[in-house]
Amino acid sequence: MSTAFDSFDLAGAKLANRIAMAPMTRSRAFGPGATPTPEMAVYYGQRASAGLIVTEGIQPSVVGQGYPDTPGLHSQAQVEAWRPVTQAVHERGGVIFAQLMHTGRIGHPSLLTDGLVPVGPSAVAAQGQVFTHEGPKDFVVPRELSEQEIAQTIADFAAAARNAIAAGFDGVEIHGANGYLIHQFLSANANQRTDGWGGSVEGRIRLGAEIAAAVADAVGGERVGFRVSPGNPYNDIAEEDPAELYGALVARLAPMDLAYLHVMEGPDRELTRQLRQAWPTAFVLNPFTHPQPTGHEALPLVEEGLADLIAFGALFLANPDLPRRLALGGPFTAPDPATFYGGDQRGYTDYPVLD
Q1: CA distance 281 to 133
Q2: How far is CA 309 from CA 48, 52, 130, 233, 326, in A?
């Protein structure tokens, strides 16, 4: 019986344990042209004892940015700036995947350049607001992507994946969750298209499946993960058919022999079990623990066979050496919400490492 502290072979990448650092938006790419900073190398290097690190969301294109000061992987300058980050992790024996995140309709024109506006599957605005440098602003009506632009978006993901490997990442995770572009295509309330990219379940899963195929072709399926959040209403998403929808998506993705599926779980544990049974390679689970962050009580899910890796989010912010603390049963530093997002540098260095 495996435990969360056992090593794991992730499609050829040797993980020291089965504890993953979940992707968390940081809004700290203060370098020119949405480039990472040296402090980001410190931040990820501090957390290299995770079996797998998945980075904050990284936009694959200029129009894919939806938050202030988030990093990209669509320019040579960005590739160069990420290299110290991956080097810092590798020097400490870690494995790091870049999460590719196109936010779609979640964003605001003030965050974009050259007169760009957020895009989406349909011209349907999300309810809510996004934080900008000028404060919170209402989401705008996105511009509906044309078929030619959808093809370009797929190509952008593939190009960003190649850039990630050039920057030294061990692989990439495609963000298909949390109400961002791929999730918007999955969800009928955001996707009201009547062409081959909407309508039926097969139409709605098409973008995610074609992005996965293009990225796998670009860098190899063994270097690709895919994240989903079935039934998650975040960013004004409504899913009436998550079991059918994600069953169909997993069926499309499974033959691609990707490195892993990463499930951000909702309250439906039975759906998690179904997806686990249907998925042929590694299964990474960010278990449903709302309103508390995922903690040590999730570790037995590996022993039970529900997951190969457990992803921890907020607890990793406050405890850079989280795998060691989990092994010892604590103590755990409580996350400080003031350090979660941009403008506050303390999250890089102020949390102590357990002696």
Answers
A1: 41
A2: 16, 9, 32, 24, 14
Structure tokens at 212: 């996965």
Encoded tokens for 323: 């795998």
Average pLDDT over residues 263-273: 97
Q: What is the pLDDT of residue 14?
A: 98
Q: Which residues contact 201 (CB under 8 A, 6 or more apart)?
A: 241, 244, 245, 248
The answer for residues whose C-beta is within 8 angstroms of residue 346's C-beta and 6 or more apart is 336, 338, 339
Q: Which residues are catalytic?
A: 180
What are the beta bridge partners of residue 131?
Answer: 136
**pLDDT tens-digit readout, 161-198:** 999 999 999 999 999 999 999 999 999 999 999 999 99
pTM score of the predicted model: 0.95
CB 83 within 8 A of CB 36: no
Cα(256)–Cα(220) distance, rounded to whole angstroms?
10
Distance between CA atoms of residues 279 and 151, nearest Å: 27
Is there a contact between 143 and 105 (Cβ–Cβ < 8 Å)? no
